[in-house]
Description:
The chain has about 375 residues and is an alpha/beta fold.
Amino acid sequence: MVVEPKVKGFICTTAHPVGCEESVRRQIAYCKEKGQVEGPKKVLVIGASTGYGLGSRIAVTYGYGADTIGVSFEKEAKGKRTATAGWYNTAAFEKLAKEDGYYAKSFNGDGFSKEMKDTVIETIKADWGKVDMLVYSMAAPRRTLSDGTTVSSVLKTVGSEYTNKSIDLRTNEVTEVTVPVATEEEIQNTIKVMGGEDWEDWIHALADAGVLADNFATIAYSYIGPEVTHAIYKDGSIGQAKKHLYDTSVKMTKEFEKIGLKAYVSVNKALVTQSSAAIPIVPLYISLVYKVMKEQGLHEGCIEQMHRLFTDKYIKKEVDEMGRFRLDDWELRDSVQNKITEVWDKITTDSIKECCDIDGYWEDFYQMFGFHYDNVDYTADVEV
Ligand code: NAD
């Protein structure tokens, strides 16, 4: 069938299989051109189908020559409904990686569940023996716990409500949003979903099964961002989960000291992904930071960020005073943030095109679902 984008607010409910393959192909081409460095050879990626997790999988495959197992939670096509972008990305990645001679296996299902952990561990035992690295890049709205109850994460503030500019993604109008305060229960649930507990469960499951290689390393992703996003992000409910994620990294490194395990948090740049598009205020900030960073020649997408993380920062073990990788180093440069502070108050619906890279935002958004690639024929019938 002919697949067209159907955008509803911050989500597109269709995805283009050929366009998703093009997206993966371009990310692979970027890494191939850069060449390889010595690094982990057996890498498990949780949340491997889109955004930073997909970028990680591609970066370690082509940057280290690593074999990968990827876990994600995507929907396959059904009747006239296309599969999700992550489903097509994963199919494309497996195909292209195998063509290039790499081992790539993918599992689609709930990464929080014990069943998924068991399945992955069986595969590691059978195919690899041991695993060198786990990248934890899951971004989920909810989690079903082992007792069968489901808890949801929220994007709210802590302490007092917060009002600032945002963008209405249906109309590109600059609006004002007031972000409500999370209850204590909502904060705890957000920590359950997006904090470090499940990451730790994965590491414990791998350790109990005896499949952690010596000097095993694991990396999970976080965000800090500038002042204008703090109330909703760093100091908000999601920020409490990210604090828990960091504390978990410190705890795990201590617990597994004997085998030389290192657990890291990498603080990444704000980018358009399916998860970040859902956060109030953040999309407006992203469109502004895109404009400023592109002007200063500092812009990166997921693949540039992840390639820099794995082939440069990780190899050099270049961490900040808290032991974190800082891929937000360019975003938080004074030259970038001073410009953002200067422009932020001036953004209105009328000036948005001039102040922000709103076209760049939407370009990334459509491309995330496989649309807007100049070399893909969108009038052609495709197999979904
Ligand atoms: P994303 O939405 O692109 O990717 C989320 C991934 O998690 C997908 O592969 C999805 O299939 C998978 N997933 C969701 N629920 C799952 C489940 N139950 N079981 C298995 N897999 C599941 O998101 P992203 O923006 O790439 O986020 C990845 C990480 O990076 C998150 O920790 C996020 O907080 C962090 N991060 C994002 C940004 C940003 O601006 N996007 C910045 C810094 C850090």
